[in-house]
Specification:
Elements lengths: L4 E7 L5 H9 L3 E5 L6 E9 L2 E7 L11 H13 L3 E7 L3 H13 L4 E6 L1 H6 L6 H8 L2 E4 L8 H18 L1
Parallel strand pairs: 1-4, 1-5, 5-6, 6-7
Antiparallel strand pairs: 2-3, 3-4
Length: about 170
C-alpha cells in the first residue's frame, strides 16, 4: 500500500486532461488559483485499494519551454513539487504535437504513465497506434482511454499504482 501518492496530470489544451481529472477525483476536488497567477489549478483525491492519491490537474501546455504562463506553471510544478508520477494525457488524433510535451517530461526523469486519449476518434480516422512500440520508445506504460465515456480509466488507475509500486521497489 502506498499512502499519500502524489500525481500530476499534464497535456496539451483540449486533450481531455480535465475530463480524466474529473473522472478520477469525482466530487473530491478543490479549484483555486496558483499564488500570484490567474491560471486556475485543480486538486483532488482518489482512493483506490487503500491508496490515497493526490491528483493535480496542471494547466494545458504544449511544451515545458515556458513561453506562456501555463507552461511556466506546469514546468515549475513538476520540477519544484516533484510529483511521484506524471500522467501525460495525449490526444491520439494528434500524436506529433502531443508527444513533444511527453518527451520533455521524460527528459526531467520523472516516472510517467501515458493516457492515450480520444482513441475512439483516432480509430474513426484510421489512425493505428502500436502500443508496444510507443511504450518502448517512451519507457512508459500506455493506456488507451476515451475519457468522456470513462473507458480505460480503471486501466489508467492500475497503471498509476503499478508504476508507482515499481518506482518504490527500485528506490
Amino acid at each position: 500500500m502506498m499512502d499519500n501518492l502524489h500525481i500530476a496530470l499534464v497535456g496539451n489544451p483540449n486533450c481531455g486532461k480535465s475530463t480524466i481529472f474529473n473522472t478520477l477525483t469525482g466530487a473530491h476536488q478543490h479549484v483555486g488559483n496558483w499564488p500570484g497567477k490567474t491560471v486556475e489549478k485543480k486538486e483532488g483525491t482518489l482512493s483506490r485499494n487503500g491508496n490515497q492519491i493526490k491528483v493535480v490537474d496542471l494547466p494545458g501546455a504544449y511544451s515545458l519551454t515556458a513561453f506562456s504562463q501555463e507552461e511556466i506553471i506546469t514546468r515549475d510544478y513538476i520540477i519544484r513539487e516533484k510529483p511521484d508520477l506524471v500522467v501525460a494525457v495525449i490526444d491520439a488524433t494528434n500524436l506529433e504535437r502531443n508527444l513533444y510535451l511527453a518527451v520533455q517530461i521524460l527528459e526531467l526523469d520523472v516516472p510517467m504513465v501515458i493516457a492515450l486519449n480520444m482513441t475512439d476518434m483516432a480509430d474513426k480516422r484510421g489512425i493505428h497506434i502500436d502500443e508496444e512500440k510507443l511504450s518502448k520508445a517512451l519507457h512508459s506504460k500506455i493506456v488507451f482511454t476515451v475519457a468522456h465515456e470513462r473507458q480505460g480509466i480503471d486501466d489508467l488507475i492500475h497503471a498509476i499504482l503499478d508504476t508507482s509500486r515499481q518506482r518504490l521497489s527500485n528506490a
